[in-house]
Amino acid sequence: MSTASDPVDRLSGPASDALIAAISKAHAVVEAETRALRDQASLDLRAFEHRKSQALLELTRASRGLLPAGVETLRGTPVAEELGRLREALDANMALLAKHLDAVREIAEVISRAMLEAESDGTYSERVAGWRP
């Protein structure tokens, strides 16, 4: 038998609706960033970082006092369903961000190698274009 102060009971009503809305907002932000990364659109990662931070703050505030200590009690609730969707979106987002970071590393290595080769072919030596001290 659950009581009004039981965490499971608190997972229904306006507080639960606010938590689900916060989870949905976080999901939408993550999905938008993932879409932009997939579409290779010109995107402002700082703006997405800010939006994700705001969504996390809202999620944290909405969940205070609502989420039970044990995850098992969430099973089958709308909150659990939304959290599962958010988790899937975050996994896809992290995988795509990892690919982009790998690409940035590769580009940095190519540039670094090119700079080293440019230095070794005399481009940056003391004698440049026939000039003699």
Question: What does this protein structure show overall?
Answer:
It is a single chain. The protein has 133 residues and is mainly alpha-helical. The longest helix is centred in the last third of the chain and has 43 residues, at 78-120. The protein is built from three helices and no strands. Residues 1-5 have low confidence and may be disordered.
- The 3D shape can be described as elongated
N→C terminal distance? 93 Å
Mean pLDDT: 81
- Any low-confidence stretches, pLDDT <50, length ≥5? 1-5
Series of secondary-structure elements, N-terminal to C-terminal:
HHH
Helix content percent band: 55-70%
Tell me the β content.
Answer: under 5%
Q: Major sheet: size, sense and barrel closure?
A: none
Helix segment tally = 3
Radius of gyration from the CA trace?
25 Å
- Structural class call reads mainly alpha
* Number of E-type strands: 0
